[in-house]
Amino acid sequence: MNLQAIRAIYAFEMARTKRTLLQSVVSPVISTSLYFVVFGSAIGARMTQVEHVPYGAFIVPGLMMLTLLTQSISNASFAIYFPRFTGTIYEVLSAPVSPFEIMCGYVGAAATKSVLLGLIILATAALFVPMEVRHPFWMLAFLVLTAVTFSLFGFIIGIWADGFERLQLIPMLIVTPLTFLGGTFYSLDMLPPVWRTVTLFNPVVYLISGFRWSFFGLSDVAVGVSFAMTTGFLLACLLIVSWMFRTGYRLKS
Amino acid sequence: MVSVRHLSKTYASGHSALKNINLEIARGEIFALLGPNGAGKTTLISIICGLVNASAGEVRVAGHHIVTDYRAARACIGLVPQELATESFETVVDAVSFSRGLFGKAANPAYIEQVLKSLSLWEKRDARIMTLSGGMKRRLLIAKALSHEPEVLFLDEPTAGVDVELRRDMWRLVRGLKAQGTTIILTTHYIEEAEEMADRVGVINRGEIILVEEKAALMRKLGQKQLAIELSAPLAAVPEALSSYHLALSGDGLHLTYSYGVDGAVGEPPIARLLADLSAAGIAFDDLRTAQSSLEDIFVSLVRPQS
């Protein structure tokens, strides 16, 4: 195991975050904070509680998940796409580093940034609304699992993309809408039966539901199902990354 | 040090970039791979360094198979790519340290300092890469390739687009590395570069190695010398008495050209006899000038018939 290489890639990526602190950390924290201030006060004034949880607090796990998904994807996809774009990827590919180690470095850094962002958002939210975390271990487990899974997904997008437009395509057109429609701002019980059934086809529902359960003990679907869905997606991403490195897809000719 | 056997590469487009390449490069030598654009030089280097998958054949570096024992093989290799592919926002010292880390080596600030100083980059160690000139970026790529103390250094067109001063600096650096025992493989289409530095020369054209030879032997074998004789009075034709010399007479009848082998061992009569025979034939001359064919002339003569 080339631990030095993993450390080098990880440190390199974390240094990029440090250099772009405003864009990497401050901007998503402010955007998400605006969501729960605006939605929390606008809707929260009319709908004070959802299943005995203050509305302002109810939407926090969903908003954390929104940031976690978009930032994990964007961090990891950019991290691997940019060296491909500039040509500096030659250095990583010609080094004595295995695909697993390359992935650990890039995905580890992207996931670390997302987890930190999630925790900062949680701390910021606690300033505005009363927060409780009923199952802190599971909260952290879902946080880390989701960050790693979607960083892997972002890594795949970064290898697949052949332009900056494609890099943005899936996060903007698929992930963000699915997160908004995945129960970030409401409980599935509030939907008409038909839409509730339709929403259950949205995979993000399971992520938000499990994560919200770790905070309030409330979930739209069974926690075990949420956990299994996330783990399944993680394994699928691992298989795709493994195939990409084995075949050299978009990395080697 | 580097062993290439029956190596072939056919891209998905069907283009056959390398055809059954066989090449042995000894430890500590400077090997220049010459070839026109698109000959397959970069593909060959890219396969050895793990950037391109081979279609057939095998490559070993320091005895390590580049696929089955890729860690050991790649750990021996430093690569300076043809393109100026560098990060932009990182500092020089961070970028070089990153390269060292990738190769599994623990941080060694003293060694990095030594490398940067040898490449005149030490003063710029805290500068962002985007602020460096093209020449400095080229030096940085060399520093990155040397950061893990490689045994084999691949230089893919190292002096493409750099000024004369930097080119000479690089030659000096390469000689220094050779003196330390580093094996150097460089691709170039600057014949001057190969002529200046290489111990051995390989010529590749259309994916095939058409010649591998020690530079000095190649110059002797294929090189030509020419003696240009400026005559005092024009000749209508070369006299019959001098026909054995295969002299070429210029259109104005005032210049004779005599071609002979570099080492004088290819059967032509010696110059002294020619000059004596000229005098005997009553041909006076005002001046003599000799010229030796360069590696470039040899290269062109090798590649042209196949192009």
From TrEMBL, chain A:
Membrane-spanning ranges: 21-43, 55-82, 115-133, 140-161, 167-186, 198-215, 221-245
Keywords from the named record: Cell membrane, Membrane, Transmembrane, Transmembrane helix, Transport
Membrane disposition: Multi-pass membrane protein
Taxonomic superkingdom: Bacteria
Keyword S-adenosyl-L-methionine carried by entry: no
Residue intervals of the ABC transmembrane type-2 domain: 19-248
Family matches, as PROSITE patterns: ABC_TM2 (PS51012)
Location in the cell: Cell inner membrane; Membrane
Pfam families assigned to the protein according to its UniProt record, in alphabetical order: ABC2_membrane
Sequence similarity: Belongs to the ABC-2 integral membrane protein family.
PANTHER family associated with the record: INNER MEMBRANE TRANSPORT PERMEASE YADH-RELATED (PTHR43332), TRANSPORT PERMEASE PROTEIN (PTHR43332:SF1)
Protein name as catalogued: Transport permease protein
Organism whose genome encodes this protein: Xanthobacter agilis
From TrEMBL, chain B:
Molecular function terms, GO-annotated: ATP binding
SMART domains per record: AAA
Pfam families per record: ABC_tran
Keywords from the named record: ATP-binding, Nucleotide-binding, Transport
Highest taxon in the source lineage: Bacteria
Keyword Nucleotide-binding: yes
Matches recorded under InterPro entries: AAA+_ATPase, ABC_transporter-like_ATP-bd, ABC_transporter-like_CS, ABC_transporter_ATP-binding, P-loop_NTPase
Domain ABC transporter: 2-231
SUPFAM superfamilies: P-loop containing nucleoside triphosphate hydrolases
Keyword Phosphoprotein part of the UniProt annotation: no
PANTHER family documented for this protein: ABC TRANSPORTER ATP-BINDING PROTEIN
Family that this chain belongs to: Belongs to the ABC transporter superfamily.
Protein name: ABC-2 type transport system ATP-binding protein
Protein's organism: Xanthobacter agilis
